[in-house]
Amino acid sequence: MTEQTSRNKFEQQRREKVDKLRALEVDPYGDRFDGVEPTAAVKAGYADDREDQRARCAGRIVLLRDIGKLIFITLRDSSGTIQLGLSKKLLADRWDEMKLLDLGDVVGAEGALGRTKTGEITIWVESLTLLSKALLPPPEKFHGLADVDMRYRMRYVDLWANPEVMDRFKLRSAMTASIRQFLTEKGFLEVETPMMQTLAGGAAARPFVTHHNTLDMDLYLRIAPELFLKRLLVGGMEKVFEINRNFRNEGLSTRHNPEFTMMELYQAYADYNVMMELTEEMVGHLIERHCESSTLPFGSMTIDYTRPWRRARYADLLKEYADCDMEDMASVRSRARQLGIDESNKDDAVVVNEVFESVVEQHLINPTFVMDYPAAICPLTRRSKKDPRFAERFELFVGTMELANAYTELNDPDMQEVNFRRQLRGLPDEESMAKMDDDFITALKYGMPPAGGLGVGMDRLMMLLTNAPSIRDVILFPLLRPSSAKPEKEIL
Questions:
Q1: Averaged over 392-398, what is the pLDDT?
Q2: For residue 362, with 0-12 CB atoms within 10 Å meaning exposed, 13-18 middle and 19 or more buried, which class applies?
């Protein structure tokens, strides 16, 4: 029997039950069902020494045992599960309807609460309402979807078939709320900035291009909110943050999704040292509030988040792990060639950074603030007054991943324009001018206060704190390659 034939067989059997339900004058796709209590709250509030306890719950049937005059159902909602007991004695006039229930159906039930002989808290159903008849069956034996890729494609099944998946996304929501509360209590104002921009700015990445028909103009899905958030600093908003989507037309991997969530903030009169303190405090707050320990697993690694975190200069880490010195570019280029990096037509700073990424990052397991990047690769960052070859920038690495990026922001409009032009070097002058964000330069000319800026990858943060091996595990609907496989095949 082919997969398609098998699918059609299961669906046909259930459609026949739909016809029987309608013949019994039962709507297989019911109406509103008020007064529902979470199953977890019902079970938590149950007391063995109290009589006349009742419950009213709704959810999906994930286990069904029909033993003749009794049917036991495990009902799952977003908070957990509870057992329903259906007795022919209590439901005699609707017993034919009860016999048409299937795994996957959504039902509402009300009745007296008690325990079975085995000690299971059970709603002895006096009234049951079919709210949605499932035409396709759940995963076999309810062990969940077998194929990981299919789980991502069918998240609508994965969430109720695998309770740990639901728990992870509930935890993500709670952590995001905690970040908002943490920042709000520190005086930050949450804002929203444009998703569609006339210029792609704020980061070095390839944008997605779209077109506005009415104005007949191309727009870019934002790669970062940075330049708009800085405009708000100019406007007098001294502490701002945004948690929202960025879009980068780049690769797919276990650590990259083209559409991802970033928390970005700016604080007037601060610098990158303030941002380090804020980052450490914020992540520490999340761990204290939502995790069982300050030492957490991440794949095969064990990460110790105990504060204070390591702070190390970029150049020192390059010496420590790559065995080359930024002061000696011949040694850096030699190391690059050993690593198979084509360095022949690249600027020194680019070669240094490619060596750093290839060799150093894999050693940064416990939280490490990598400080003072080469200024040439940091066009939006203030230079160090002690050594202008370096920028007051840090990246936070945890579990060998970049988790956060922060600057002491550049607020000199003339220097910013020079840096923008350097970024666009190699393009014809007229094209460079077309891509220059002249309005941002104009904003800086009105005066932006000294500031610190921070961006934290929310998806990667959730990966680390929930021990998720892939970024797709923490994004409800990740972007996936097209599949010719039938989406139902893994759940039959």
A1: 97
A2: exposed
